[in-house]
Amino acid sequence: MSEEQEERGIERADFIAWRKRVGLTRQGMADYMGVSLYAVIKYENGQRGITGAAAQLVRLLWQLEAIAPEIAAHWRGETAPLKPLKDEAE
Prior knowledge:
Elements: H1 3-8, H2 12-21, H3 26-33, H4 37-45, H5 52-67, H6 69-75
Helix pairs in contact: 3-4, 5-6
């Protein structure tokens, strides 16, 4: 990712589309990201940009959704607890 992309942050429309695609309410997204509901509302209304650490977190969660959707669903509280991997030595 270029410095320009990182400075620009996350586009508001992309953020809203992602929240709707994964089926989360604003409160659900706030819980998923570990931010306040007020922060999500400000992101979506364009009153606050999604930059810095918040943008990095969103990009990380987008990657998680793409490469490990089962884990992402678990983190969103949509699935039962994940079973630990069996130790091959057993």
